[in-house]
Structures are given as structure tokens and as C-alpha cells.
Design brief:
Layout (H helix, E strand, L loop, with lengths): L1 H13 L5 E12 L9 E2 L7 H4 L6 E13 L3 E5 L4 E9 L7 E9 L12 E10 L4 E9 L2 E9 L1
Parallel strand pairs: 2-3
Antiparallel strand pairs: 1-3, 1-9, 4-5, 5-6, 6-7, 8-9
Length: about 160
Amino acid sequence: MTLLAAGLVLLSLTAPADEALPVSMWAMDASREGRPRGERHLDRELLPIRDTIEALPFDTFTTVRVVRAEARRGREAKLPINERYTLYLTWQSGGTDDEPLCLAIRVEKQPEGRDREKRRPVNAFATRVEVRPGQKIKFKGLRNDGKELVIVLRAG
């Protein structure tokens, strides 16, 4: 019995804790409204990611949602964007000093049009990425009320 208790104590000391990975998501509508060169509109909530979206070919960026959440290793975290889209993020591995984070990311789209209550949501896109903790990544290409939805994520 003592050997079993010692083994359990040793296992609890070496097993990884239920770590939390801080995640930030900025979702925005991006559009071209014909503003003069160099006079972009950027909502105040989007200022922390200005450098990440600077090269995009839009002149207007309007906040849809900013979310700060935590992801747990192996569990899917839900980050709502709006009524149409939800981002799901799973921290699969990594995050140590020399190992990048491996994240599974998918954006789910709610059905639209007739009989939408009878249909299930679909994945608008799904991908896996490797990033360094704190690195920002962007996704674009989804349509949102005639504008392009741009999503920027930072984990760690």
C-alpha cells in the first residue's frame, strides 16, 4: 500500500497541470470605402493589432468582437464572433520554451436562408497552425454582410 501511495504522489508531481493558455481574438469587418491613401479608419479596439493588419488592402476596419479567453490543452475553446460565425480553438501541443504551440482552429458558420432551423452549422474553414507564444496570426476571406471578416488571434 505504501508503494502505491508513493507512486501516486510521484505521478501527481510529474503529470502536467491543467494549464491555461491565454487567447485573444479580434474579429473585424474590413472594407474599401475609398478613403484617401494613408487615411485608414481603425476602431480603437483594433489598435493592438494595427501592425498585423497593416498590409491588408482595406481602408476601413470596424470591430465585430474582441474576445479574451483561456484554452486548455486538448479541450475545444469557443470564441463567439457574431450570430453567423463562431471560432473554435484547440490547444493540441507545445508551448514550452523551444516548442511552438500547435493549435487546431475552425470557424463554424450558422445556416442561412429558408429552413435554417432544420440544418446544422458547417465549418467555414478548419486548419492547424504552429505559432510561437504571443505571435499574432490572421485569417481572412469570410463574407460578413457584404464586407470581409478578418480574424486575428494571439495565443500565449
